[in-house]
Write a structure and sequence with these properties.
A six-stranded parallel beta sheet has the order 5-4-1-13-14-15, with helices on both faces. Strands 7-6-8-9-12 form a five-stranded parallel beta sheet, with helices on both faces. It is globular. By secondary structure, the chain is an alpha/beta fold. 38% of the residues lie in helices and 19% in strands.
């Protein structure tokens, strides 16, 4: 597939567009190039502990001109999925207040009694009451959805337990796995992106630094895959995968240069 056909670039953030609180080489050039060519980008993250506005605020602090509509989280994807499957639903949330606001923004009711759905996110505000009540509902057979499967979330101090760790905890207690997991690498995430943007899969590319989430997501979803070596993955890691990405570049700035050459 030619890059000329791509209308929407899905961008991982940490390790792809920025590292901590610094933009990676060529990040701003990429934004300007994509916009000048009438194409679009959408920042994509599995982290459901924050909402789109919080991520947009961080990007603006890095002087990137974006708003919340330029960011798509697994929490928002889950809210759309539930809306499509159940309509406006009554939800018990094991997640942060930011995730609660995301669901309420899509017309769902967040409640501690008689839920239609239990949703598990990356809950940095977790407490025993939430876990216990969620397990009771799940054990009773209430539909159970996880926003994403990541076992750990990277931090400056080392990996921290993410939603995938709580999936294991809940399974040990209840004997149940989630009925659906929405975020990367599951193709369900792409269906929600298509619904949000109106862009067909054959015109979408995933740009990221992780083989087992970003590139695996692209492979399972059947979209163009672009691996950047500015974050976690290395050329040595590529030797261990069965299907290589469609394109491997040093950083997002190199992708901007390729787009300019095609004009």
């Amino acid at each position: 597939m030619s890059l000329e056909r791509i209308a929407l670039f899905l961008l991982d953030m940490d390790g792809t567009f920025y590292l901590g609180d610094s933009l990676l080489p060529g990040a701003m050039d990429f934004v300007e190039t994509v916009r000048s060519q009438g194409k679009r980008f959408l920042f994509l993250t599995n982290n459901s502990s924050k909402d789109s506005k919080q991520y947009a605020d961080k990007l603006r602090r890095l002087e990137v001109d974006v708003d919340a509509s330029d960011v798509f989280t697994s929490g928002e994807a889950t809210a759309i999925f539930i809306k499509r499957r159940y309509g406006s639903a009554r939800i018990f949330v094991i997640g942060t207040q930011s995730l609660v606001r995301t669901f309420e923004g899509y017309g769902h009711i967040v409640a501690k009694t008689d839920p239609q759905v239990v949703v598990l996110g990356y809950d940095t505000e977790v407490n025993y009451e939430k876990l216990a009540l969620g397990c009771l509902f799940i054990r009773k057979g209430v539909d159970y959805i996880a926003t994403h499967p990541d076992i750990n979330c990277p931090s400056a101090d080392g990996p921290l337990p993410d939603a995938g760790s709580f999936i294991s905890l809940i399974e040990r207690s209840t004997g149940r796995k989630p009925d659906f997991i929405v975020g990367k690498p599951n193709p369900l995430m792409l269906k929600m992106i298509v619904e949000k943007t109106g862009v067909e899969p054959e015109r979408i590319a995933m740009v990221g630094d992780r083989l087992y989430t970003d590139m695996e997501f692209a492979k399972r979803s059947g979209i163009f895959s672009i691996l950047v070596l500015s974050g976690e993955s290395t050329l040595e890691d590529l030797k261990k995968v069965e299907v290589e990405p469609d394109l491997v570049l040093q950083n997002i700035g190199e992708l901007a240069l390729m787009l300019k050459r095609q004009v």
